[in-house]
Amino acid sequence: MRCLFLFNELRLILRPVVTSYNRNFTGRNDANPATHGFVASPDIVTALAFGGSLSFNPLTDSIPTPSGKPFKFSPPRGDELPVRGYDPGQDTFQPPPADRASVQVAVSPTSDRLQLLKPFQPWDGKDPKDVPVLIKVKGKCTTDHISAGGPWLKYRGHLENISRA
Question: b/e map of 20-54 (b: 16 or more CB within 10 Å)?
Answer without folding.
Answer: eeeebebbbbeeeeebbbeebeeebbbbbeebeee
